[in-house]
Design brief:
The chain has 182 residues and is mostly helical. It contains seven helices and three strands. It has a three-stranded antiparallel sheet with strand order 1-3-2.
Length: 182
C-alpha cells in the first residue's frame, strides 16, 4: 500500500485517501475497535473490522490490512477468519490476481441484526422446548419461558424496527452503499 492510500500513516483507507488525515483515521480505527472489544468482539477482529469500515472501498487486501494496522499476516488471517465466520466480511478474489480482498457486506448493520434475529429465533425455540420439558410452572421452567417470551418480543420489535429503518433510510440524503469497485 503506498502513502496515498494511507495518508502516510498506519491509518489505511483502502482507497484514494489523498484528502485523508492518516492520524485521524488511525485514531478512529483504534477508538472504534476499542469500543467493539469492550462490547465483546475479539481485539484483532475489531481492529480489522474498523479498518475496513474506514476504507473508502470497504475492502482491503491482507497486505493492506497488515500495513495499515502494523500487524502480522497471521493476525490478519485470524481476524478475517472470525469476521467471516460471523458474517461481517467476505473474501473476494482480485480479478487477474491470486490475492484476496476482504470486503464488508453492503448494509452491514442491517444484515448483522437480521442474523441476530435468526439466532434469537433459534434461542426462543430451544428455550420454549426447555421450559416445556422442565415444566412451565417450576422455577427453572418459568425462567426459561420468560426468557423465551423476551426473545420473542425482541424479534417482533426488531422486525418492526428494521422495516422502519429501511423506510427512514430512503428519506435520507445518503450515498448508495459502497462497492468493492468504487
Amino acid at each position: 500500500m503506498d502513502e496515498t492510500e494511507t495518508g502516510g500513516t498506519a491509518g489505511g483507507t483502502g482507497g484514494t485517501g489523498g484528502d485523508r488525515d492518516g492520524e485521524a483515521v488511525s485514531r478512529f480505527v483504534e477508538r472504534f475497535a476499542g469500543q467493539l472489544t469492550d462490547a465483546g468482539m475479539q481485539r484483532m477482529a475489531a481492529r480489522v473490522f474498523a479498518a475496513l469500515l474506514a476504507s473508502d472501498r470497504a475492502s482491503m487486501t491482507s497486505a493492506e490490512l497488515g500495513a495499515a494496522l502494523r500487524i502480522s499476516p497471521a493476525a490478519v488471517s485470524g481476524a478475517i477468519s472470525y469476521l467471516s465466520q460471523v458474517g461481517m466480511v467476505s473474501r473476494e478474489r482480485e480479478p487477474g490476481s491470486r490475492r484476496d480482498r476482504y470486503v464488508l457486506h453492503n448494509e452491514l448493520w442491517y444484515e448483522t441484526f437480521t442474523r441476530r434475529d435468526q439466532v434469537l429465533g433459534m434461542f426462543e425455540k430451544t428455550l420454549r422446548e426447555g421450559a416445556s420439558g422442565l415444566g412451565e410452572y417450576t422455577a427453572a421452567g418459568a425462567r426459561l419461558a420468560e426468557t423465551a417470551a423476551f426473545f420473542e418480543f425482541l424479534q417482533s420489535e426488531m422486525h418492526s424496527m428494521l422495516h422502519r429503518w429501511r423506510a427512514h433510510r430512503a428519506t435520507l440524503d445518503l450515498p448508495p452503499p459502497p462497492t468493492a469497485e468504487a
